[in-house]
Amino acid sequence: MAKTKSRKLNITFESDIDLERESESSEKTEKKKTNGGGKGRIWEFIAIATIPIVLVFGNSMLVPVLPQMQRELGINKFQSSLIISIFSLAAGIFIPVIGYLSDRFGRKVIIIPALIVYGGAGLLAGFGAIWDSYTVIIIARAIQGMAAAGTAPIAMALVGDMYKGGTESQALGLIEASNGVGKVLSPIIGSLLVLIVWYASFFAFPVFCALSLLAVLFMIKEPKHEKKQDLKSYIGKLGEIFKEKGRWLITSFFAGSLGLFILFGVLFYLSNTLEDPPYKIDGVMKGLILAIPLLGMVITSYTTGSLIKKKGTLIRWLINIGLVMMSVSLAATIFFFTNIYVFIGLLTLSSIGTGLLLPCLNTMITGAVQKSERGMITSLYNSLRFLGVAFGPPLFGWMMDQSDRLVFISVSALSFITLGLVFFLIRPPAKLAE
After folding, report:
1. Which of 146, 194, 356, 382 is packed most tightly, with the most Cβ within 10 A?
2. How confident is the model at residue 226 (pLDDT cuts 50, 70, 90)?
3. What pLDDT is stored for residue 77 in this prediction?
4. Hey, which family's this protein in (predicted)?
5. Is the distance from CB of 255 to CB of 319 less than 8 angstroms?
6. pLDDT tens for residues 375-398?
7. Which of 7-21, 101-115, 150-164, 403-417 comes out lowest in average pLDDT?
8. Cβ neighbours of 405 (radius 10 Å)
9. Is 152 left (phi over 0), alpha (psi -120 to 50) or beta?
């Protein structure tokens, strides 16, 4: 009789209930990690938030100063707008280069020297103002812009490296909100500093940079940096990303750029309008009025960042709702720009729309690529945002010289076009990748 080998039959049962429990337990573990490091995370969030605030002060703090700068230096409206534009243009050009360097060498190693140069260039601009040298101020502002390329844009990539899921979205929302807080506070601070002397804002930059520098040095622990890539393979990977996702990425870049083009252009318009008859409002009161639309954007940005997490469907809805709010409110300003109260109300609605738009774009764009390419992608995005800021004030200034109504016909038309592009081209999945 042939011997038979005894064999064991292993049967494994998988229960949907067990899988659900595993999923729930992993979510709880993630929450515990988030809550467990709560105190440390709060300090990290504060440190990260200082970086975009410092960046925003670089432009927004000077907006209320521009009319007086024109009088003191004997320059025209276009020349004064270049104080804002040269900063943003330099940043926009250098951001992609610095983004690559941050991917290659690390985030903090870029942010720290950038803050030092940023503050030093502020001092140079201050001395240029004392010497009544418009040329020195412009050169200093260009240097500041180059340094600015290594601040908030790299902070966005750093957030993508440090956090995942809902925490990442919350941190990105915080960046956009702190960006907005800077925009709210900066015209008020600029208006207060101008009471001392008109160029005091330039000398305030090193102080703010020093505070941010200390926060970054001691409160942020950057994750271990991934393997370095050579430039050729890096650009090759970038090309692959745009080949696969270029349609919606380029549309997202354009939408983010438009949001800031309109925001800074409108601030420039409002700052000049308030100082002209019949309003003749300047000083702190003007700073407070400029802060109203920005406050709406700040609250909306932070709330949006906290809610969206990685919910692609919600993100798509909020992007489109934000652009609808911007388009409709800007179209209404064509008829109501002469009524200052209605005008400010409509600008606030538009800013709330921007507050819905930008955090959603941030979350989509940072989640579109792996960590090793994130610095370059977010840098390209921020580069175009800066170019939006750069062209806002001079183009608005030129259009103001032609016709006030032309200003709002142009920007409302641009908003409606962007809404159409976004509606048809941006369709994120129901759940975004971590």
Report:
1. 382
2. low
3. 79
4. Belongs to the major facilitator superfamily. TCR/Tet family.
5. yes
6. 677 778 878 888 888 888 888 888
7. 7-21
8. 14
9. alpha
Give yes or no for a contact between 237 and 371, defined as CB atoms under 8 angstroms apart.
no
Confidence of residue 372 (pLDDT cuts 50, 70, 90): low
CATH of 42-425, one of 1.20.1250.20, 1.10.3720.10, 3.40.50.150, 3.40.470.10: 1.20.1250.20
Would you kindly state where each structural domain of the chain is located, as residue ranges? 42-425
- Nearest 5 degrees, angle CA 299-CA 369-CA 244? 115
Which has the closest alpha carbon to 290: 307, 311, 274, 304?
Answer: 274
| Residue pLDDT, tens place only, 230-277 | 777 777 877 888 888 888 889 999 999 999 899 888 888 888 888 888
- Angle, to 10 degrees, between the axis of helix 77-105 and the axis of helix 152-162? 30
The Cα–Cα gap between 269 and 398 comes to 11
Which segment of 42-46, 176-180, 286-290 scores lowest on mean pLDDT?
A: 176-180
Q: Are 252 and 425 in contact (CB under 8 A)?
A: no
In total, the chain counts a number of residues equal to 434
Q: Rounded to whole angstroms, how far apart are CA atoms 305 and 314?
A: 11
- Interatomic CA distance for residues 185 and 57, integer angstroms: 8
Cβ–Cβ under 8 Å, residues 146 and 117 = yes
Structure tokens at 78: 């276009």
C-alpha to C-alpha distance for 340 and 86, rounded to whole angstroms: 30
